[in-house]
């Protein structure tokens, strides 16, 4: 039996919305994403739909595969607001040197 905390986490997770937004931005179907990350073609669409609807939560390995296919960093899926999600994507695109520079700049403000 689930307790309140488990129910709250499942229904308030940012993962479903982030997953759907990233998939649509790349322009692929649920089935195509599922197949690309190694799901059986016959069940890929249904499984991805369950993830996007929040009925099931993908394990961390599955999330990593999705992140790679959707060209977003893993932490993108856990961002609770759009600005944080956008920042996560932009920061992931920076070189190590650019990240160090950004950190230094932010620490000095």
UniProtKB/TrEMBL annotation:
InterPro entries per UniProt: Cro/C1-type_HTH (IPR001387), Lambda_DNA-bd_dom_sf (IPR010982)
UniProt protein name: XRE family transcriptional regulator
CDD domains (alphabetical): HTH_XRE
Residue span, HTH cro/C1-type domain: 19-77
Source organism, top-level taxon: Bacteria
Xref: PROSITE patterns: HTH_CROC1
GO molecular function, one term: DNA binding
One Pfam family cited in the UniProt record for this chain: HTH_3
